[in-house]
Amino acid sequence: MLRFLILTLVLLFSINHIETSAEPLELDTPKNTIHEWKEIENHVEKIHVDTHYIEYRRNFIKETRPCKIYHHIRTIVYYCEIHGHTKVETVLEKIEHSEDHS
Ligand SMILES: [Zn+2]
Ligand SMILES: [Zn+2]
Predict the structure, then answer these.
(1) Which residues contact 98 (CB under 8 A, 6 or more apart)?
(2) Which positions carry the signal peptide feature in this UniProt record (predicted)?
C-alpha cells in the first residue's frame, strides 16, 4: 500500500512538472498575453502502476491472488496559434483494480 502511495505521489509530481514546463516563457510572450488555445489532441492511456495481493479463503485455506492497479490518464494538448506554443493537461480520470474486491 505504501508503495502504491509513493507511486501516486511520483505520478502527481510528474504531472505538475509537465504542466509547469509547458507554461509559456515570459520572454517569448509579447505584451498581449491572451492565448487562443485549440485542442489538438485528447486521449486516455491505461497505465499499470502497481500490483497488490488480496487474501481470500478457499476450503478454509488462506490464499492470495494478485490484483493489478491501473491509472486511466487523460492527456489533452492545446496549441496557441498566436504565440506558436503548446500546453499539456493531464487528468487522472479513474483508478482501476483488475480484481473485484473492496
Ligand atoms: Zn499563446
Ligand atoms: Zn485491488
Answers:
(1) 67, 68, 69, 70
(2) 1-22
